[in-house]
Amino acid sequence: MDTTLAPHANEALAYTPEETTRTYRKIGWRIMPFLLLCYIVSFLDRVNLSFAKLQFMQDLGFSDAVYGFGAGIFYLSYVIFEVPSNLYMQRVGARATLMRIMVLWGAITAFMFLVTTPTQLYIARFALGAAEAGFFPGVILYLTYWFPSAYRARMMSIFLMGIPVSGLLGGPIAGWIMHDLAGLFGLKGWQLLFVLEGLPAVALGVAAWFVLGENVKAVQWLSPREKAIVTSQMDLEQRQPVVHARTWMSEVLNDPRMYAAILGYFAITCATVAISFWVPTIIKTLEVDDVRVIGWLSALPYLAATIGLWAIGRHSDRTQERRWHTALSLIASAIGFMLLGQVSHSLPLTLAMLAVAATGLYGAIPVFWTIPTTYLSRTAAPGGIALISSIGCLGAFSSTAIIGAVKSLTGSLNMAMGAVGLIMVAAAVILLIAFPRSLLSKPRENA
C-alpha cells in the first residue's frame, strides 16, 4: 500500500504520511488475508455446483433447465435475507455475524451430497443462499470501519480477488476430487466435492471470532497512536458526508442514482454467474471430456482475471478515478461475451474471449463498490450496500435460469452470452450518466 491520505484537519497534522501508510499497511496485513481466504471458500461453495453438474446430471437425470434453476435459486434467497443480515450485523457485531454465516453455509454445502431429486436441489440451494446472505455486503461494510475512501478500491480488490482465485483453484481441485477420490467413503466424485469443500467454511467461521477485531477501538494489536491515526481519518470523512444524513431507507429509496447502482450490479451479477456456472459446460462442448482437463482449462480465464482485478483496482486508487475504470472494464467484458459465439469452433479462441470477459468483469467489481460507498452517508451505507447487492443479485437468478432454459431449448449458449454482454454495455452507460465526476470528487454539505 503506497497511497497516503493527506491530512486535512489540525488533528491529522500530527501524523506523518509515513506513519499513516504504515498503519494502514499493518491493518491490511492483519485482516485482508483472512477475509480473502473466507471469500475464496465462499465462492468455491457457491459455484462448485458447476463442476458437480458434469457428473450428477447423468447420475440423477437432471436437465440443463433444472440445473440452471437450482443454481439461480441461491440468489433468490440471497435477495430476501441480505438486507436484514446487514442491518442485524450492526446490532450483534461483525465477528458474530460472519461466524454464523460461514458455519451455516459450510454445513449446508457439505450436506448437499444427499441430494437426489430436483426439489431437494432447489431446497438446498435456497438454504445456501439464505445462509450466505449478508457475507459480501457485511464485509464491504466492515472495510468501511477500517479504511477511508482513498484506500477502499485496493482493499476491495484484495477481498474480491477471492472470486478469480477461487476460479483459478476451484477447477483443478474439483477435477482432482471428482476423478481421483471418487469412491472414497462409498461416495461418488460429485458427492465428495460438496463434503470436502463445505467443511473448511465451518472451520473458518469459528476462526473468524478469534481473528477479526470488531472495530479499531476494540483491538489490542494497534497502538494508541495507530488507533488515533485511523479514527482521525474516519472523523474527517464523517464531517464531510457526501449526501444528506437522513434515515437510510428514505435516502436510498428516494434517490434515482441508487437505482442506477442497482442496475450496474445487476449487470455484474448476470455476467458473474454466466462465467462461474457455465464455463465448464462451454469447455465440455468443445469435445473436452476429461473432468481433470476441464478443471485446468477453466482456471485459465481466472488467472488473467486475478491479475487484471488487482491492476485495475490499484490504478483506480492511484488516480482516484472510479467512473471510467468501472465503465470501460464492463464494456471490455461485454466484448468478450459477445464474441464467444463467433469463436465457438476454437478452444484457444474461446478461452481467450473468456479471459477478456473475466478480466473486465472482475476488474470492474471492486471499483464499482467504491462509488456507492463514497456516495452514501454513514447512516445509509449498511442498508444501501445490502440493497444494491441483494436486488442486483436478481441478475444472478435471472441469468442462470434464462441461460439454462435457452441451453435446453436450443442446445447453444451463444445467444444468452451475447445478451449478457448487451446488458453490461447498457449498465456502463447508465453509471456514467448517473454518477458524474463532480458528485464523487466534491463532497456535499449537510442540509
TrEMBL record:
Cellular compartments per GO CC: membrane
Domain Major facilitator superfamily (MFS) profile: 31-439
Localization, UniProt: Membrane
Sections of the chain in a coiled coil: none
Keywords, sorted A to Z: Membrane, Transmembrane, Transmembrane helix, Transport
Gene3D superfamilies membership: MFS general substrate transporter like domains
Molecular function GO terms recorded: transmembrane transporter activity
Annotated membrane topology: Multi-pass membrane protein
Transmembrane region(s): 27-45, 65-85, 97-116, 122-146, 158-178, 190-212, 258-279, 291-312, 324-343, 349-371, 383-406, 412-435
Keyword Transport tagged: yes
PANTHER family per record: PERMEASE-RELATED (PTHR43791), TRANSPORTER, PUTATIVE (AFU_ORTHOLOGUE AFUA_6G08340)-RELATED (PTHR43791:SF36)
Protein name from the UniProt record: Major facilitator transporter
